[in-house]
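Supplementary Note 2. Why include the ligand at all?

Several targets in our set were suspected to adopt different conformations when bound, so apo predictions alone were not considered sufficient. For every target with a known small-molecule partner we therefore ran a joint prediction. The input for zinc ion is given below.
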Amino acid sequence: MNAENPAANAGTTGMADDERPDLSNSNVREDLAMTGRCALVHLPTGRTCLLPLRHQGPCEFHRPQEAQDMVPGS
Ligand SMILES: [Zn+2]
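The joint prediction is reproduced in token form.
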């Protein structure tokens, strides 16, 4: 029970330990990622990339409704 409180890491200089962009997966839908999709979520619009994982080129964002259709068993 000690990994959920970012405030516990206070006290140092201006070096904020924010999420690193290259490691941030807070905007990836895991249910879609597990189906082999890129699953990146465009947070401002809530749209999700439905292209295959590690696809080439830019993400292609689709509406949440379409994304949901890609999730098996839903
Ligand atoms: Zn993508």
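Residues 26-74 form one domain. The mean pLDDT is 78. Comparable summaries for the other entries are listed in the accompanying table.
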